[in-house]
Design goal:
It is built from four helices and no strands. The protein is mainly alpha-helical. α1 packs across α2 and α3 runs antiparallel to α4. 1% of the residues are buried. Keywords: Amino-acid transport, Membrane, Transmembrane, Transmembrane helix, Transport. It comes from Acorus calamus (Sweet flag). InterPro entries: AA_transpt_TM (IPR013057). It is found in: Membrane. This is Amino acid transporter transmembrane domain-containing protein.
Length: 73
């Protein structure tokens, strides 16, 4: 981390903090979504509740392609 700050300056530290706050807020929203609707357990479940069957298929495909790309690398 000190190397990254020495190369990026104080602005890089500020950007890191902003990304941490965004990640924390996203986790908070996911928790609210999961608590609000019983039966939701996975990302595809959340996508189906928000966007219907197309959302579920899109998220499932994205997750599958991510797993396959990790296996290939």
């Amino acid at each position: 981390m000190p190397y990254a700050i020495s190369n990026g300056g104080w602005l890089s530290l500020l950007v890191l903090i902003v990304f941490c706050l965004i990640s924390c807020y996203t986790g908070f929203l996911l928790k609210r979504c999961l608590d609000h609707t019983p039966g939701l357990r996975t990302y595809p479940d959340i996508a189906e509740a928000a966007f219907g069957k197309i959302g579920r298929l899109a998220i499932s495909q994205q997750q599958q392609s991510q797993v396959e790309s990790e296996l290939l690398s």
